[in-house]
Amino acid sequence: MSSASGGCDGSLRYVRRVTSSDATAPHPPVPALELPPTADGFTAQFLRNLNFDGGVTLADASTNDRYLALARTVRDYLMLHALADQQRQAGAQAKAVCYLSAEYLLGNQLDNDLLAGDLAGVAADAMAACGIDLDELRRHEIEPGLGNGGLGRLAACFIDSLATLGVPSIGYGIRYEYGIFRQTFEDGQQVEQPDAWLTLGAPWEQPRPEAAQTVSFGGRTETVDDAGTVRSRWIPEWNVSAVPYDYLVPGFRNGRVNTLRLWRAKATDAFDLRIFNSGDYEQAVRAQTFAENISKVLYPEDSTPQGKELRLQQQYFFVAASIRDFLGRLPEDFDLARLPERVIFQLNDTHPVIAVPELMRVLVDEHGMAWDEAWAVTQQCFAYTCHTLLPEALEVWPVELLGRLLPRHLEIVYRINEEFLAAVRARFGDDEMRIRDMSIIAEFPVRAVRMAYLATVAGSRVNGVAELHSQLLRDKVLPAFAEFFPEKFTNVTNGVTPRRFLRLANPGLSTLITDAIGDGWVTDLERLHELEPLAEDAAFRAAFAAVKAGNKRRLNEVLQARDGMRVGDGHLVDVMVKRLHEYKRQLLKVLHVVSEYEGVVSGRIALADLQPRTVLFGAKAAPGYAMAKRIIHLINAVGSVVNTDPRLDGRLQVLFPPNYNVTLAESVIPAADLSEQISLAGKEASGTGNMKFALNGALTIGTDDGANVEIRELVGDANFFLFGMTEPEVAEIAQAGYHPAAFYQEDAGLRRAIDLIASGAFSGGDRSVFEPVVSNLLYEDRFMVLADYSAYMAAQQRVDAAYADQDGWTRAAILNVARCGFFSSDRSIRDYIDRIWHTPPTT
Ligand code: 26W
Q1: How far apart are CA 724 and CA 702, in angstroms?
Q2: For every residue of 294-335, which 3-state class applies, written as one string?
Q3: CB distance 796 to 460 below 8 Å
Q4: Which of 228, 256, 547, 592 is the most exposed place for a label (fewest CB within 10 A)?
C-alpha cells in the first residue's frame, strides 16, 4: 500500500484508498485505513476527522477540536481491529462472560488505547507533523468517572484483562450523564460540584440507537389460564427506552476488541405520543425528564445504600436491557435450555441482582419455559461477587417498593424463597431460627428482599475478593449459606491491570524493567520475579532510586499545575488515597501527623530528628456521610496549621489535593515511598490501591486485612510494616466490650494528640468544630482507632529508621515490585475462568 499523503499542511483533503481486491471479501473494497498504521495514514485520518467530523480546518481548530479528532482517529484504528475480530468470532458459539456492573471507573482512554493498539508512535509523529502538542491533548481529556471507588475500578481492570486474554465478553453498565462528583474544598470542607463529563463531546463512545431496548416498570400482574396451566403475566404501566453507547475495549496488542455497553435512558416514542395526543404538551416534556432521570446521575454512596427508588430503577433498567441485548445475539432458534453453555452473568456485588428474577421472568413468562427448568438454567447462568464485609453495605429492597416498581419480580422472588426455604426445612427440619436467618425476605424493620441472599441462592458461585475476605464471608457474613451450599463458595483475589498501573503510569520503571528482563511482563506479570536478583545489584538500585526521584518530580509538576502544591525535596512520600470511610481509618493517619507535630512543638522531638515527610491524602466522602466530611475538614485543618508553622520548618507537610480520581492516582502512586493500608482488620474486603502501590515500589504500612495479608506473604515481613490487631483479636475485644477511653487514659502520646485537636488548635481556637470527631473517638470509636494507635506509632518509627538507610529501602522496594506479579488482574481473570466461568479464551 502506498503512503497516503506526505506531512501535514492543514489543507482539506480526503484520501481515497482501496484495499487490495480480494474476491472472497464479504463486501466490495472500501476506502480503508492502513494496517499496520503509518504516520502519514494516521495524519490523513486525523485531518479527515477534524475536517468532516469536527467541521474545522487545522488552522482554526481549538484544543478540544484537536482532541476530539485525535480520539476519533484512535478509535477508527481500533474499530478496524474490532470489525476483524467480530468476523473471526462470528459463528464461534463460544461461551461469553456478561459482566454486570453498575459502575466502571475507567480513567482516561487516550493513552490506554494508544498503548493497546500500538499507536503511540504514529500518533506522536502525526501530531508533530501537524504542529500539535500531544501532551496538551492528553491533559485536555476528562476521565469518565462512572464509579465510586474500588468496585468500579476493579470492573475497569477486569474488562481490560478479559480483552487481553481474549475471552469473549461484554461489560454492561449505565452511561451516567453525571459521574462521581467533582470535589472542591471551601475553607477545608468538601463541596461537591457536578461532573459534566459529556459536555465537550464523548469521542470514545458510539451510540447505537438501532439496538435500543424497551424496559418496563410498574403496573400489576394478572393470572391467565394458558391451556390448563395457570400463568402469571405482568401488565406494566410505563416504559423507558434503553439506548446503548458502546466503548471499544482493546486487548493489549492482540487484535482483540471487546465491548463495554453502557445504557442511557430515553423516553419512548409511544409514551410521548400518548400524552402528546392528550394535548398536554407540558406533561409530555415532564414525562421525558422523568424517564431520562434514570441514567442521569451516579449515586455517590460508597458502602451505605440509600434505598432510593431511583436507584432500584437504575439497577433494573440496566440489567433488563442487558439480558435482552444478550439474548438477542443468540440465533433465532436457540434452545434456551442450553443458555448456560453460552453465557455466564457475573454480578458485581448486589447492584445487578434484580437480573435473577428478570431472567426467570423472561424464561417463564415470555418463553413459556417450565419454572423448574428455568430455575435450573438461571442458577447456572449467574455467579455473584461480594465486595464488602460491612453489614450496612448489604443491600435490601423493601417489598413495598419492589412490589410497586416490579410487581412480577416480587412474585418471582417470593416463589424462589418459598422453594428455597422448603429445601432448608427438608434438610434441617422446622428450625424456625434458621429459617428466619436464611430467608431471602427480612421481616424487620420492614419486609425487605435481601439481595445478597438472593444472589447466593441463585448463583452457581459466590466469591469474596481476597483470601481473608472470602473466609470471613463464609464464616461471618453468610455462614448458614456456606453450610447449606459449601460447594458454591470460593475466592478470587483481586488484581489490577499492569498496562494502566505500571506500563502507562510509570514509564520510568517500565523502561527499567523492560531493559532488565524484556517486555513480556506486560502480559505475564509473574515475570517480575526475574528482577529479584537485581535487588542486590548496586547499579540497578541506583537506577531504581533515580526513577522514583523522577516520579516525584513528575508528581510535583502535576500538583503544582493542578493545585499549587508540591512534595518537599528529599521527603518520604507517605500516601493514603482511597474513599473516605471510618473503617479505612484516615483518622489514625491524622493522629500520627498530629502526634509528630505536637512532639516537635512541645520540644519532645528535636526537629533534626524528624524524618522529613510529605503526607498526601486523597479521598472523597459520600455527600450524606457527615462524619466522613468532618474528617476531611480535620485533615485540611491540620494541614493548614502544620504546613505553615515555622517551628516545623517544612519538614512535615500535609497535602490534600481535591478530587482524587484515576488520573491523579496515575501520578501519585508511582511517586509514593509509603503506602498506607491501615483499615481495621476484618473490614476492608481486599483493597486494590494496596496492590498498585506495591507494584510501583512503595512499601506498605498496613494491618492484616484484605489483600494486605497476601501482599505481606509474598513480599516478606522484612519488606512490609505490619502493625495492629488481627481480625480474631478485633472480634475478641469487640466481644468483651471495647472501651476507647481506656486507651486514651493509658497512652500519654495519644492523649496529647487528641487533646490538641480538642483544644481548638486546628480550628482557630473554636473547640466545637472537631468536638464530634473527638467524642466519637473517645466514646464510640467503632473502628478501634485508639486500640491500634500505639502499634501504628511504633510501626511508623520502624518506617523512619528503615528510610534512613536509603539503599536498604530501595532494595525492599525492588523486592516489592519483583514479588507482586500475582496481583495482575490477568491472574484474577484466569482464576474466574477456572473456578467460576469456564469460558476459555478464543483465538
Ligand atoms: C450504595 C451501596 C454500595 C454498597 C457497596 C455501594 C458500593 C458498594 C461497594 C461494595 C463498595 C466497594 O467498592 N467495595 C470495594 O470493592 C473493592 C473491589 O473488590 C475492594 O478492593 C474493596 O476492599 C471494597 O471496599
Answers
A1: 8
A2: HHCECCCCCCCCCCCHHHHHHHHHHHHHHHHHHHHCCCCCCC
A3: no
A4: 228
Q: Where are the alpha helices (DSSP H) in 485-531?
A: 498, 507-517
Give the span between the Cα atoms of 320 and 350, in whole angstroms: 15
CATH architecture of 563-810: 3-Layer(aba) Sandwich (3.40)
Whether 465 lines ligand 1, by a CB cut-off of 6 Å, is yes
Query: Would the CB of 149 count as within 6 Å of ligand 1?
Result: yes
688 is catalytic: yes
Q: Reduce the DSSP state of residue 235 to 3 states and report it.
A: strand
Q: How far is the CA of 390 from the centre of ligand 1 (A)?
A: 10
The number of helix segments (H) and strand segments (E) in the chain equals: 32, 25
Nine cell digits for residue 776: 466519637
CB 762 within 8 A of CB 641: yes
For 632-658, what is the mean pLDDT? 98
C-alpha distance from residue 618 to each of 576, 580, 668 (Å) = 7, 8, 10
The amino acid present at 415, given as its one-letter code, is R
Residues in the chain, total: 843
CA of 706 to the centre of ligand 1 (A): 12
Active site residue 164: no
Helix (H, G, I), strand (E, B) or coil at 519: coil
Domain ranges of the chain: 3-91, 563-810
For residue 819, which of 672, 710, 666, 657 has the smallest C-alpha distance?
710
Q: Give the 3-state DSSP-derived string for 112-179, with helices as H, strands as E and coil as C.
A: HHHHHCCCHHHHHHHHHHCCCCHHHHHHHCCCCEECCCHHHHHHHHHHHHHHHHCCCEEEEEECCCEC
Q: What is the tens place of the pLDDT at every residue in 305-345?
A: 888 999 999 999 999 999 999 999 999 999 999 999 999 99
- Annotation marks residue 387 as catalytic: yes
- Write the pLDDT tens digit of every residue in 241-276: 999 999 999 999 999 999 999 999 999 876 666 666
Rounded distance from Cα 192 to ligand 1 centre (Å): 21
| Alpha carbon distance 388, 2 (integer Å) | 56
Any ligand 1 atom below 6 A from CB of 687: yes
CB neighbour list of residue 299: distance below 8 Å, 6 or more residues apart:
306, 308, 311, 314
Q: Which residue is it, cell 495514514? A: 41
Say if residues 383 and 463 touch (Cβ distance below 8 Å).
Answer: yes
> What digits encode the pLDDT tens for the residues 372-412?
999 999 999 999 999 999 998 999 999 999 999 999 999 99
Q: How far is the CA of 460 from the centre of ligand 1 (A)?
A: 21
Q: How many CB atoms lie within 10 A of CB 737?
A: 6
The single-letter code of the amino acid at 614 is: T
**HEC assignment per residue over 755-789:** HHHHCCCCCCCCCCCCHHHHHHHHHCCCCCHHHHH
Is ligand 1 within 6 A of the CB of residue 619?
A: no
Q: Considering the candidates 66, 578, 592, 819, report the single residue annotated as catalytic.
A: 578
Report, as an integer, the average pLDDT of 681-686: 98
Classify residue 688 by its DSSP letter: S
Residue 348 near residue 384 (C-beta atoms within 8 A):
no
Prediction pTM value? 0.96
Establish whether residue 705 lines the binding site of ligand 1, counting it when its CB lies within 6 angstroms of any ligand atom. Answer: no
Average pLDDT, the chain: 95
Tell me the C-alpha distance between 383 and 360, whole Å.
15
Active-site option among 474, 500, 541, 692 = 692
Catalytic residue selected from 488, 552, 571, 584 = 584
Q: What pLDDT, on the 0 to 100 scale, is given for residue 22? A: 46
- Considering only CA atoms, which residue is closest to atom 17 of ligand 1? 150
Listed in sequence order, the residues at least 6 apart from 253 whose beta carbon sits closer than 8 Å to its beta carbon are 116, 117, 118
Decide which of 607 and 1 is more confident.
Answer: 607
Judge contact between 648 and 553, C-beta under 8 A: no
Q: What is the 3-state secondary structure (H, E, C) of 544-564?
A: HHHHHHHHHHHHHHHHHHHHC
| Cis peptide bond prior to 407, omega within 30° of 0 | no
